[in-house]
Write a structure and sequence with these properties.
The chain is 77% helix and 0% strand. It contains four helices and no strands.
């Protein structure tokens, strides 16, 4: 078995796949590596992708709440009580 060599292209792909909610096991399978290898080499990309996705969704929800979407406003407020 040959060693895995991360590249900027693979890093970008991992971040992109994480951002759209792809399961980490599926990302590893897509790349042809194990889950531990994914975690070892792409920890930051997995985190950043997930953060970007959550931020985009939260931003959309926030805008909808401000525009008068009552359901969005209630959901926003419930999640902010933490």
């Amino acid at each position: 078995m040959r060693a895995h060599k991360p590249t900027d292209e693979i890093r970008a792909k991992v971040e992109s796949l994480a951002a759209v909610g792809t399961r980490y096991e599926d990302i590893a399978l897509y790349l042809g590596i194990t889950r531990p290898t994914l975690d070892k080499y792409y920890k930051e990309e997995l985190k950043i992708g997930t953060i970007k996705a959550n931020a985009a969704i939260a931003n959309t929800l926030y805008k909808q709440a401000l525009d008068g979407n009552t359901t969005a406003a209630i959901f926003w407020l419930k999640k902010k009580k933490k």
